[in-house]
Structure formats: C-alpha cells, structure tokens
Write a structure and sequence with these properties.
Elements (H helix, E strand, L loop, with lengths): L13 H24 L14 H13 L1
C-alpha cells in the first residue's frame, strides 16, 4: 500500500534482494491465479524485446479453445 513515506533501501543487501525476489514471485503468482480465475488471458511484455511472438502465441492458443 502506498503511504507517501520515503524509505531508504540497501539494494546491495543479500537479505533485501532475496526478500524482494520472494515477494515479487508471490505477487506475480497471485496475479496469474486471479487472471485465470476470471478467464483473463495475459502475456508478459518486456521493453528489451519484441512481444509480437508472444502475442501471436496467445491468439493461437485462444483459437484452439
């Protein structure tokens, strides 16, 4: 939840990185489950590569259903 408070984070800390990775993995899994339960198709899009192949794959999978 956003509070507007500033927080200093030591991103070089191994403990912080592990906790952040774990929380992010769990958040993504919750989102994926929520989308599936609502019948929402989704793809991950990245800024460093084209999402065209992933989008085509998504529509092909939809067509098979």
């Amino acid at each position: 939840m956003e509070t507007g408070k500033l927080l200093n984070v030591d991103a070089s800390s191994g403990d912080f990185c592990r906790a952040y990775h774990q929380e992010n993995t769990e958040r993504l899994a919750r989102r994926k489950r929520a989308f599936r339960s609502m019948g929402i198709d989704a793809i991950d899009a990245w800024t460093d590569r084209s999402f065209a192949d992933d989008l085509v794959r998504l529509f092909r999978e939809r067509k098979r259903r």
